[in-house]
Amino acid sequence: MSATRAEYCVIACAEAWRGAGEVLASPMGLIPSLGARLARLTFAPDLLLTDGEALLVRPDGTPEGWLPYRQHLELVAGGRRHVMMGASQLDRYGNQNISCIGDWSQPRRQLLGVRGAPLNTLNNPTSYWVPRHSRRVFVERVDMVCGVGYDRAAGLGAAGRFHRIARVVTDLAVLDFATPDHSMRLVSVHPGASVEQVREATGFELAVPDGVPYTREPEAAELRLVREVLDPQGARTREVPEGAGG
To answer: Which end of the chain has fewer CB atoms within 10 angstroms, the N or the C?
Structure first.
């Protein structure tokens, strides 16, 4: 079975939780949610999933436990959660903006607000999902820092000791920060995309190793789970249509 671009994105998001153990997965958005549920059904059976309100749930959404808000916050503050957030802007060191576009004192556009991004990035592993890889998102400098990047975390001393940005998944590629200065690095491109396309859609210079591979191909069993169990209505293709990118 050949996979669609959306399905490669689901696989790439699922891989963020490989080897995570018994931690709470907090995916934000359809594709990351499918990825977390797929990981739970396959290679990460100890992963905990939440309905976003007060319950722990199975991949099919049926309850399996109670998770009141105070306990959710304990998991966050104690590092027992891996969140995959969105980003309106990201820079080369992983600083994230979801608050405003333009000068914060008089922004051109108001967005979600800072919300829990600082606490997330300083207390538990964080990844990002970007459904449209473009220079509007991947910028030289974010207009306001919400999620803390590696350059700023380095100056926080003990307060930044648990900071870790695991990966960034987009409709074109997978990226991480495994470089000497923790600047963003291209890890893989999804089939149908190219290294040059990713470079062109990024507003700063990426670290690009020689021989960048393609993103891991979904196994037949994984594709069946995505298509028949997790998303039989095909909502994933509305978030990442074929031919997406840029």
So the answer is: N
- The 10s digit of each residue's pLDDT in 19-41 is 988 899 999 999 999 999 999 99
DSSP codes, 16-57: GGTT--S-EEEE-SHHHHHHHHHHHHTT-TT-EEE-SSSEEE
In Å, how far from its chain's centre is CA 112? 17
> pLDDT tens across 172-228, in order?
999 999 999 999 999 999 999 999 999 999 999 999 999 999 999 999 999 999 999
Domain total of the chain: 1
Is the CB of residue 54 less than 8 Å from the CB of residue 104?
Answer: no
Asked if the structure places residue 246 within a domain, the reply is no
Residue 221 within a domain: yes
**Element of type H or E holding 187:** strand 185-189
CATH code of residue 197 = 3.40.1080.10
C-alpha separations of 6 from 36, 148, 199, 231 in Å: 14, 28, 20, 11
Question: CA–CA separation, 88 vs 229, rounded Å?
Answer: 31
> Does the reported pTM lie above 0.90?
yes
On whether residue 48 sits in a domain, the answer given is yes
Q: Specify the amino acid at residue 217.
A: E
